[in-house]
Every structure is written in C-alpha cells, then in structure tokens.
Amino acid sequence: xxxxxxxxxxxxxxxxxxxxxxxxxxxxxxxxxxxxxxxxxxxxxxxxxxxxxxxxxxxxxxxxxxxxxxxxxxxxxxxxxxxxxxxxxxxxxxxxxxxxxxxxxxxxxxxxxxxxxxxxxxxxxxxxxxxxxxxxxxxxxxxxxxxxxxxxxxxxxxxxxxxxxxxxxxxxxxxxxxxxxxxxxxxxxxxxxxxxxxxxxxxxxxxxxxxxxxxxxxxxxxxxxxxxxxxxxxxxxxxxxxxxxxxxxxxxxxxxxx
Length: 258
Hints:
Blueprint: H1 6-9, E1 16-20, E2 28-29, H2 40-49, E3 53-57, E4 62-64, E5 72-78, E6 80-86, E7 92-99, E8 103-104, E9 117-120, E10 124-130, H3 131-138, H4 142-168, H5 171-188, E11 195-198, H6 202-209, H7 213-225, E12 229-232, E13 235-238, H8 241-246
Antiparallel strand pairs: 1-2, 1-11, 3-10, 4-9, 5-8, 5-10, 6-7, 6-9, 11-13, 12-13
Helix pairs in contact: 6-7
C-alpha cells in the first residue's frame, strides 16, 4: 500500500519531551541543534506581529474547553498538550498531541467557538495572541496572511491524514506511522530523530489511533522484539527507521484487535 509523505501530511501533533542519545535508557534532556527549518518560525512571526501575553498552564489544566468563545491563538512556548472531544457516552477521544513551537486554537477561527478541549500534558507555558488584532494586521501584511493560511491548511491536512490512518491502516501500520511522523517532526526542529520520551500515556496514544491500550503495548513489544525500536517505560529509541518504514504496507497475516 502506498503511503503519503508523512512530513507533508503530518498526523496529529504529538506532545512529548525530547532526549538525545543512542540508548533511551540513558536518555537526558536534549539541546536543539540550530536549524533554520524549525517550525517555531511561524510562531515567532505571529508573536512579532501582534501583542502576546504569556500564560502558564499546569498539568491536567484546560487551556480552553469545547464551546468556549474563540478570541485568540495560543503558541506553545514550553510543554505539551492534547486536544480531546467527549463522545456521547462521556468517554474522552484524543484527536491530537501538540508540542513546543506549535499553535493551538486554529479550530475556532471559522465558528468563533472552540471545537474541543485543550489539556496540558505537563506544566506548560503558552503565549496568547489576540486573533482580532492578528486578523487586522494580516489584511495589511501578505506574509502574515500566508502564515495564517498555512496554519489552516495544515489543520485540514492533519484531519485528512488522520482519516486515512484510521480508515485504511492495520494496527501495526498506525503505530509505525505515529513513530515515523514523530521522528520526522523532531528532526525538523533540530532534535534527535531517534530518541524521545512520550508525555502522553499509551492509552492516550491508543485513543488517537483507534486502538486498545493492550494493542498498543503488544505492538510496541513486537517492534522491540523485531529490533525496530527499544522501549523503556515512556522512553523510546528508534533502532532502525528503514525497517519501521517497511512495516507500512507489508503483508502480515496477523490481525490485531482494535
């Protein structure tokens, strides 16, 4: 099965802490390598154009809730978040993970209300950028307007990629795609593409990928047994990225329960 370029389609943003090193067991917090390609540039453009207010959000606290009036975009300066919806029976459905350098709140631009909740996965800091001011400035600044359009386009692409992942991929393909996307996004930000510490739980990963907790754990263990990754609690090191890519589209008679 053919697979779209993950760097372009970008599955839901993933919230995590970053570590350097070849072995996750000895992982320490990473220092980003300098690179002009870091996607934080878009956030810096928005902050430079409009007045921005810093705001701290503790782990488990809501940045905004479903139905809240939309008034601002939120740039993540530190930490990570998850976006969630509640199903009709009250269960939490994770729809994305977001980390430093990314912008939250784009979902509210069209309806003037937020379409879901944003919850901090760890103690975090955001900058609140008033959208009315940003919108007025964008009308006079073509570069700023293009950046806003880029963010809206990325949100549409994210939703399409997630629909593809949930609708046409087997369980192991979903988890492989998740890890590959994560690796590529880390490299684009100047961090290690092979070692990271997840801030979300396996249950939350399963919620986003449409998989049961047991399935996520079982596939991670299989990937480790096959020499694709090394797992230690929430610490993950990708041992063979080419082999992990080969999981997508390979014929496998095993069928995992979702």
